Amino acid sequence: MSSPTFTGIIAFKGGVGKTVLSASLGIGLSYMLKRRVLLVDLDPQANLSEVFLTETTLSAVIKKAFETGRVFSFDLIIRPSENPIIYEIPGIPGLYLLPSHHKFMREAAYGINVPMDRAVSFRGILGRLTKELELDHVIIDFPPQMYQYVITIAAASADYIVTPVAKGAFSIPSVGYLIETYYDVAKVIRREPSVFLGAILIRYDEGNSKLIKLSRERVKETVSKFFKNVNLSPPPVDPVFDTVLYYNPLLTKIRGQLIGSTPYIVKHILGKYTSDVSRRLQDRLKANIASLVREFEERLNWLAALEKSRES
Amino acid sequence: MASSIREKQRVIVELPYNIYRTIEKLAYIRGSTIENTIVELTKTLLGIVEDIDSHYSLKYSKALDHAYDLVLRAVKEGKVKLRKKDKAYNKAYIVENYVKPLGVIATILVDLYGKIPKRVSKRDLESRSNNLEDTISRIAMRGLNPIKYILNKIEKIKPIAPAFDIEIIESEGNFELVFGNTALLENLYGVGTRPLRRRIKT
Q1: Model ipTM?
Q2: How many domains does chain A have?
Q3: Fewest CB within 10 angstroms: A22, A118, A169, B51, which?
Q4: CB–CB contact B187 A128 (8 Å)
Q5: Which of B54, B114, B184 sits opposite A192 (nearest CB)?
Q6: Residue whose C-alpha is closest to residue B99's, from B120, B76, B117, B82
Q7: pLDDT per residue over A135-148, tens digit each?
Q8: Among residues A52, A50, A56, which one has the least CA distance to residue A260?
Q9: How is chain A split among helix, strand and coil, in percent rounded to 5?
Q10: What is the mean pLDDT of residues B10-38?
């Protein structure tokens, strides 16, 4: 019996690498581990959609959506009886995208209130999609917490949450704020909060082991301090992933390819650019993503096994 | 010939004076005409009604359609064998006899645990028997034996359980439900329960 997992990529702070992490996990799980993955872009700024849709493909998607009456990611929360657009990413079989639309930026500006039952319906819709597309993973890319609906949907629709931590003075304290808010809301709306799968250090330089060690310790300290203060049992996994998603110039240019149908990052993963520099960067990125997704699955398997042993 | 619905329609409505005054003020604040303000207000209201309608049509009819599709798919794949072959493809029959009891189980579990858990055993349910009794009196009727009621529902959903990735493990005097994909049942919350029936009637 396959058991699809729902993972929310969530962070309090903007610009820490939620989109990069979602895209990397999606590509890694589908291309390297041959899993079937659905990436859900819930960000009104449509960053993840921008990674995988070029101007050419976006207009084709919008046209098809209009013709077939299908809707974008956020529409599903507002009008859950509609059918969603599922875009199959070219070049990587088994990787799908439920895109966001830039029109949501305007709606989000006025504040969108998502009641709890809508958030639960959204999980139901994702559940149906897992069956239809035979998915192994659903990865939901959330906007930063400045949109008030983030935590509600995350708590209702994700089984696990992962947060990226970028190099920066504000990133580490923001992990503390995130967990605090998350558990506060989850306590009210879902009696059992989703499991905090861990923080992933992102954009650190490969050779800077001192800084990585220091950041890892600080994140651990922040997380354990929270669980100690609220008298909750901490998640049974290490709060920080061993794998670091290192700085890679390819990831900085991940968005915004204007023409063609194959996204920029997919082209690199498929090795379409053949210069020496590109090759070197591609190999580094592929090895990095592969170890990240392996650890991601190991953690999920370990948690599933732990849950099973507890029940028996 | 009937006129197209896209054509502009002229509707004359007599508004109560107070409402007219309010709209007039609103139009003045917005810097718009009274007619445009009324059109915008109607559009906004219809949008909200459409959102609400979409939510409830998912809950009350689409969720049942999806569940029916899942059962049919499982029948085609050979995972599910329904006893009465002549009724196997009858939607009303499947919904009434299989999907609604499943909705009742989903509702009980969501009310008890906050969300559908991955595993539920009889022992675990018995430990929450107080809440369980309350829940069942709310969704069905008072005075029922909760465990017997759930067992009865489990018995009903047995034939279609594989369609929803549910494994039913039964041993002497004990049962356990293992949900492979808990999200599949989220939209069935409320289906087949008394509050939902009452809401539809009113």
Answers
A1: 0.81
A2: 1
A3: A169
A4: yes
A5: B114
A6: B82
A7: 999 999 998 876 67
A8: A56
A9: 50, 15, 35
A10: 90
Asked if residue B2 belongs to a domain, the reply is: no
Q: Comparing A235 with B101, which gets the higher pLDDT?
A: B101
pLDDT at residue A134, rounded to an integer = 92
Structure confidence by residue, pLDDT tens digits, B117-171 = 888 988 888 888 778 888 888 888 887 888 889 999 999 999 999 999 999 998 8
Tokens of B116: 């559908």
Instruction: Using a CB–CB cutoff of 8 Å, tell me whether B189 touches chain A.
Output: yes
pTM for the structure as a whole: 0.88
Q: Which residues 73-102 on chain B approach chain A with CB closer than 8 angstroms?
A: none
Q: What average pLDDT does range A53-80 have in this prediction?
A: 89
Beta-sheet pairing, B166-171 with B174-179? antiparallel
**φ, ψ of residue B193 in degrees (nearest 5):** -100, 165
Q: Specify the number of domains making up chain B.
A: 1
**Residue of B57, B118, B183 lying closest to A123 (CB–CB):** B183
Instruction: Note the pLDDT tens digit of each residue in A21-51.
Output: 999 999 999 999 999 999 999 988 889 999 9
Q: Are B114 and A123 inside 8 Å of each other by CB?
A: no
Please answer yes or no on whether B165 and A2 come within 8 Å at the CB atom: yes
Any domain includes B6: no
Q: What range defines the domain where residue B179 resides? A: 45-201
Of residues B157, B193, B190, B194, the one with CA closest to residue B175: B157
Cα-to-chain-centroid distance, residue A178: 15
Q: Which residues of A touch B106 (CB under 8 A)?
A: none
Range of the domain at A159: 5-311
We report the CATH number of the domain holding residue A171 as 3.40.50.300
Q: Is residue B114 part of a domain?
A: yes
Cβ of B58 and A2 within 8 Å?
no
